[in-house]
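Structure tokens please, single chain.
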Amino acid sequence: MQTSKHFSPFVTAATALLASGALALALTSPAVAATTISGADQGGKWAVAAGSPITVAAGARASVMATDGLHLYVLSMAGDTLSSIDTSTNLVVDTLALTAGEDPVALIQSPDGSKLYLVDKFSLGTVSTVDVASFTETATNAVAAGTFDAAITPDGATLYTVRSGFVTAYSLPSFTAGVPVAVATGPLALGISPDGTKAYVASYNTGNTVILDVATNAIVGLPIATGVGSQRVKFSPDGTKVYVTSDTGSKLTVITVSSGAAASQTIPGAVAIAFSPDSRFAYVGEYANGKVDTIDVATNAVVSTVSSGLEGLDASITPDGTRLYLPRDSSTTVSALHLVRLAFSGQKQIAAATATATFAVSLKDGNPTNGDYSGDPVTIDVLNSSSAVVATGTIAVDPVTGNGTVTVPTAALPIGGYTLRATVAGEPSFNATAATFSVVAALAATGVDPSGFVLAALLLLGGGLWIRRLSLRARPVR
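Here you go.
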């Protein structure tokens, strides 16, 4: 019997196909790319440095930052004034005189930035509306006597006010009052969640914070202990956490919105609070001690503290996160602080024996008199796993943009992990920023991954066995 002639060309073609496919797999498998320094690895912590105080009327108590960051509005209780400060120069450019004896205590901005609402304390029981464009008082509406704070919903349709024992919702712009909702005695502050569904109300007297469902006007869950003297409620910009400060309780409480879980830590005389725009850091003012603490939001750890007599009751930050302001009710000034940040970016793996490694760097300084970069000397050190300095790099930064490069000698560095550390000589409160990288034996060449050859070999082995079986079936039948 004759051998089948159909198998021989098929076997030959299959062998060629497998060989070419294996080679293609080996050569086109994606390389294992070196990861980059990003996000938390940047270590770009903002440090606080005190600037020149800004003079306003006595009793500066509350502040809000304009939505575009160009102006800071400061409410002075004793002076019965509203001041507008140009944040590019830190100069007062406009002052609005309020009705004498109003004793304004809180300042709220509409979401679109077109209006300001001034809450007047016990004496009058009113909320005044200020048109930002003309910087004039356009309306005064009666609210319950004793109103101490207010917050506006994200859609700008409702203003919630808090007074002893009650929270009241007012429809805007008519100021039609809803039914007051009973809460704990002595509420002093409240905040509306970014999605507009919840109001967090802090009680100064009881030291508890309750959560109000704005759709049902019902208290949800149990009171959260936030410390006697609770008087500020602020949401992180990303809306995931609520911070409540307590001055007499010397306490900062962080509430996770999704779970309701709360964690507290000791911050002496904590009152004022503001956040970096990226929600990475919280700045908390110690009223009694005149300090400002920088807190890492991810860990709740205090990463730096500056002391400059900064006894502020409120805090506001520019949208770019470079300037922090604290109105001081005990004086006639607003403390202006500029924030310094140095962050790295670049490859996290460097091949051994590489002469130098270059990293991109961003150095920002919020001091309006110096631009983005003040020119203070910056030291770049490379630390090994034992924290010993094993190399020193150089930095070149554009004095206007604050962007530049860091070059580090790496030829003599053994394989292992290292820390890139920067310190700014002219900013004693600057918390040294760091980023990690490693020296490795070699990086995979672009487009070639050794694992591709392993897969190719397995493919050839399996395919060869299959072809062998076909060849056996193709033998002559005797």
